[in-house]
Amino acid sequence: MAEINGCFKDAVCIDAGRVYDSCCDRDCLSDLQVCFSESDQQSVETAVGVRAKSAEIINVEVNVEPVTFNRGYYSVDMMFYFLLNIDLYPAASSTPANVNGVALWNKKVILFGSDGNAKTFSNVYGADQSGCGSSASANLPRASVQTVDPIILNSSLLPVCRCDGECCCTFPKSVTSIVGDIADESTVQNKVVATLGLFTVVQLIRNVQMLIPVYDFCI
Fold first, then answer.
1. 14-23, 42-51, 64-73, 135-144: the lowest-pLDDT one
2. Is the dihedral of CA 114, 119, 121, 127 positive or negative?
3. What is the pLDDT of residues 10-34, one digit of tens each?
4. In this structure, are residues 103 and 58 in contact, taking their beta carbons and an 8 Å threshold?
5. Region 39-64: what's the mean pLDDT?
6. Which has the closest alpha carbon to 122: 15, 210, 31, 19?
7. In this structure, are residues 82 and 105 in contact, taking their beta carbons and an 8 Å threshold?
8. How far apart are CA 83 and CA 181, in angstroms?
9. CA separation, residue 172 to residues 105, 146, 149, 175 (Å)
10. Contact by Cβ (8 Å): 178, 58
11. Is there a contact between 193 and 155 (Cβ–Cβ < 8 Å)?
12. Which residue in 41, 21, 31 sits closest to 204, CA to CA?
């Protein structure tokens, strides 16, 4: 297809990611329990005041699963891991001890990601143990989570209530390597909770073939 009167030169087929569905959320994460290492937890036990200075997202684990009896829709489960920098005050008008703690929060959304039944084989996966030169990729859409570091809305120091069944959940090694081994919950008497404001954009993307106009190769 030649260029005519400044129009495109040719039409080519490309393989690109198409966003089938997305959602934008502003969440208020109320009273997230912050977990500390053994040594930092000792400072929490003797503190009388607390102030959260900053919070950042360490990692987001994303899992995509099809929704049963609703073809084309997928559940996107996200686990957010936060690193919080906190000042602990051992007494009123005293110099605070600065420590780092971690917190986690789970979010789930259901989005449309189209229905794909075709199996895709490609040599980019390399040979498997059986000697085959290609393997099939999972026929699931790709989830993309875009976010910024959360805003700290509040923080407080509270006694631990054993009757409410709350716990400081298990963290992966990628998180504990930053702050150290998390203190045993059974020995914790005081806890730090923080309220965060979080903005996220979640997208479901699937590779499709599209015909697009082109001018020429770019150097």
1. 135-144
2. positive
3. 888 988 899 999 999 999 999 999 9
4. no
5. 93
6. 15
7. yes
8. 14
9. 14, 21, 20, 6
10. yes
11. yes
12. 21
